[in-house]
Model the fold of this input.
Amino acid sequence: MALMSLFFSKYLFVLAALLPIINPPGLVPIFISMTARNSKQQRAFLARRIAMYCFLLLLGSMYVGSFVLEFFGVSLPVVQLSGGLLISLAAWRMLNDSPAESTQPSSEPVRQENRDELKQRAFYPLTFPLTVGPGSISVSITVGASLTVTGKPMIKYMLVPMASLAAVLSLSVLVYMCYRHADKLLGYLGQTGSVVFLRLSAFILMCLGVQIMWEGVEQLFVELIQSNANLLHR
Done:
């Protein structure tokens, strides 16, 4: 019972940390807008790929993200600044799309893309930075560092990793379900409601991108001030 309690506590801890910042239902209109000229079959393929990439990115960030950043000498504020810029640019393109491009089938033919092109677009920009952005990567790295526990090897090397893996898998499945049934979820709003919701979502995404950039700039300024203060004390 103690092991099960620890498993579910770690599972809920990881899920509660990542679910609000990724927010798969809130990403539905963004996915619709970015795949407006793809067929239903292509969208289903993209949904599967995005869910798989989401799982790999989150799990990789949780366990090896801090080591990778340290290896390349990249700090989290720089990741936030760069990722926030990418998100803001994507939101700007969405704000400048015509309603026909965002909410209903276009008069232009369906975009013809092979599987390799779909795989590339599924990773960028649909998985990174729109689904798994710098914010969720930062949270994943932080969560991975906080999951370190002392005790028996079975708890440290089996139970806790399995709990975090189950949480990330659950979140990836939720991403797949929301994207796979994006048309139905957004269809309840109607055409006018969809246009309004898409514009609001693009604006909110722009605000999130600027917020992430600001957090990165703020942290860089703090580090700069601290380094200057240390130099003055020498």
